[in-house]
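Notes from hallway chat w/ T.B., transcribed later so I don't forget. T.B. wanted the structure written out for a chain they're using in a teaching module, and asked if we could keep both sequence and structure tokens in one place. Agreed to drop them here.
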Amino acid sequence: MRKIFNKFLIKALLGALMGLAICITIYGFGGYDDVIISNKPFMIAQFIGSAVLGIIGMGGSVVYEVEKWSLTAVTMMHYIFVVIAFVCCCVFLKWFEIRALPIVLIIFTITYFIIWLINYLISKNEIKKINEGLEILKQKDIKGDSHE
């Protein structure tokens, strides 16, 4: 349990930093006028919201460490936490108009699925390589036992 908590802390910190970096990039290069940028409460809220999303998205990925749950269960749990946090931030920070939320959710879901699929394929490839390595070791062990 302590190992999972430590992973959460590291991932949450990385997520917060990524969220802040994205926020800085959007507001730094987004062509926003000085009135918006100089509104300190607004900008602080944007930074906090971006950091919170990063914390929930990256930190929440530790649910994948729970071996008792199926991949489908942890994926759905992570998706639900992230999408709820995303919608709350969107509404609270006025990132999108409410009427645009269904389209934003569709885009969010497609993006989430693409990221999940990429990670799944990478993991599947790594597992394949590990299994091939184990098979080679097993064959070497069988050949070594037959020569005795």
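Follow-up for T.B.: The helical segments are 2-29, 34-37, 40-59, 71-92, 101-146. Might be a good example for the class.
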